[in-house]
Structures are given as structure tokens and as C-alpha cells.
Amino acid sequence: MSALPNCPACHSEYTYEVADMYACPECGHEWSSVASEGESGDEKVVRDANGNVLQDGDSVTVIKDLKVKGTSSVVKVGTKVKSIRLVEGDHDIDCKIDGFGPMKLKSEFVKKA
């Protein structure tokens, strides 16, 4: 059989090459063949506001006042958050903030401490 990778969108095995791209006839998804050769999995790199790579267990500092949805309280600039956990989604940091409890943050509003 062929050594072409399965489609990352629908996992179909019927992919084919078009120039320097791969294409899926079932869902129409196209992706670069160069990028998939060097990948080591579906790892997403999460970066802070300054471009530093974040990892699980890092400590970060909030760089902007953040309103807490559903309350009238605000997470102030300079609040230090310890032991973050990276998750998938729009809010890619899962953490616990003293005085607020469990919370999800966007990486664009924090910097590595």
C-alpha cells in the first residue's frame, strides 16, 4: 500500500499528493507535505505575550486587568499564577488563582515569570 499519511481532519486513508501538498478526496482538506514529515505528533506550542514557550507547571504573571465573567471582580495586573496546565481550546491555560479559584486564561494575557 502507499506510505502517505492519513488525513488529519477526517482520518481517511485515501489521501493523495498534489505538488508539495497532500489532499483528501473525502473531506477536501489539504495540508503541506513538508510540515507533516517533520511533525512528532499533534503538539501545539503555546506562547505567552512575549513569545516565550509555556509548559505545564510554569509560573506566569497576568499583564492586563482581566474581568471575571459572571462577577464584578477583576484579576489585577501583576497577579502571579503558579503551576499552570496547558489545555486545548480558546482559553489554553488552566490554573488556580488565589482568591478566585479555578480559572481558564488566554496565553496572550500572561507572561512567563
Describe this structure in words.
This is Alkylphosphonate utilization protein. Belongs to the YjdM family. Residues 46-113 form the Protein YjdM C-terminal domain. Residues 4-32 form the Protein YjdM N-terminal domain. This protein is mostly beta strands. It has two domains: 1-37, Single Sheet (N-terminal domain of TfIIb), CATH 2.20.25.10; 59-112, SH3 Domains (SH3 type barrels, Roll), CATH 2.30.30. It has one helix and eleven strands. The protein has one helix spanning 33-38; strands at residues 16-18, 21-23, 30-32, 60-62, 66-67, 74-75, 80-81, 85-86, 93-97, 101-105, 110-112. The protein has a three-stranded antiparallel β-sheet. Strands 7-4-11 form a three-stranded antiparallel β-sheet, with no helix packed on it. The longest helix is centred in the first third of the chain and has 6 residues, at 33-38. The N and C termini lie far apart (50 Å). Residues 36-40 have low confidence and may be disordered.
